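User: Study the shape:
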Amino acid sequence: MKDKVLVVGAGIAGLGAATWARDAGFDVTVIEATDRVGGRAVTATRPGSEDRIDVGTQYFHSNYRLAKQLLRSAGLAASIRPVRGRTRFFDRRAPGGSFTAGHRLPIIRAGGMTDNLRLLASGAWRILRDPVSPFRLRDHVRLDTQTAGTRITDPFEWDFTARCLVLAGCLVEPGPADISYLHMVRLMRIVLTTDYLALDGGIATLHERLAAGLDVRLSTPATQLVWDGRVRGVTLADGTTVEATHTVLATPPGAASVLMPSDWHEERAFLQATRHPPALIVTFFLDGPLEDGVWSYILPSDPTRLVGFCVDAAQKNPANIPSGKAALQAWICHPASTSAAALDNEALSTRVLTELAPFFPGIDARVEHVQVQRHAAAVPQFPPGRNQAALAFLARIDERPGLEVCGDYLTGGYMECALWSAERAVRRLRRLTM
């Protein structure tokens, strides 16, 4: 008889773990509390058209080994599209108030040649000096205990490297003490040395395709791990029990904490300490194209403004926008997202459109439809010390028989980070059952 594996959570970590466990010969069931799979991967459509846009997870990176493996196994390899185009930076220091740049070896026209050479040399030195794995959890105590602000003190480098990486990679308008230097190096290695990849049909297509090959039970919330010295499954909200030889907990950290026994103090404390702020995406479907060859926009830092950056979905992946019309997505990141979450959709859209008007003249007259996507918990954050805490957490979990835990909050917040933890969980299952 096959060992029974129960996966709790149908985001990419859970679906990846379930797929690999099934392929390894386990009898796998996935339960998901909500009525859909995919977690933060969400797709929306322009009314009356076939235009599809990502309103959550936006893209893959070209160094996503595990994600590419799943894409191939799901028959989606031919649907991968490189994101081509540049980013427009709005900055008063630049001639004309803005400039465009690519994400590799960018020329920052808000500074001179000396500034750019210094930026290039510093970035290369940081990447080569500390060759950390961007996705795996490893002991990097020296880097993890330092703040990014103590290591990046050049204002020009902060504005055009640190801020941009954290804004787009963590959905946070960063302060110097908000992020560990280890995570800053991770972001540099992920973003500055790879290509962006989009997916025809939207990123959620991968999650849907994986789920189609699994036994997934939606709207099935769990309330407690069944624990008697070994985890033997979960109790559901309706009072029934789902028994399993192995349980893989692939929920967001807050939900994972609730499921654990009350006397697992250290494990619960780690999960509850996870910073997982909200993010909001306001999409303006315009009446035509915006700017050819520009797929993202970075706005100046301003604590009074909600929006820090924007994405034009039509330029990011034209194959998903057969109408050819722009879909300008304004991202509201932490800390602005916390206060903005209290606004209703109409008030939020009105304020965002007012903020965008100086950067996109005439945009208010071009809007055909507005869509608002709210993520109550977006990208997990990695302040100083978080990496070492995650190592200690996983070491404790490894001592709990019958349980594996996976999620992007352990190593970096990216899809490949979630899949690294899922692969680790399945490797342990195979080793424990040999």
Observations:
- The longest strand covers residues 367-375.
- The chain has a mean pLDDT of 95.
- The radius of gyration is 22 Å.
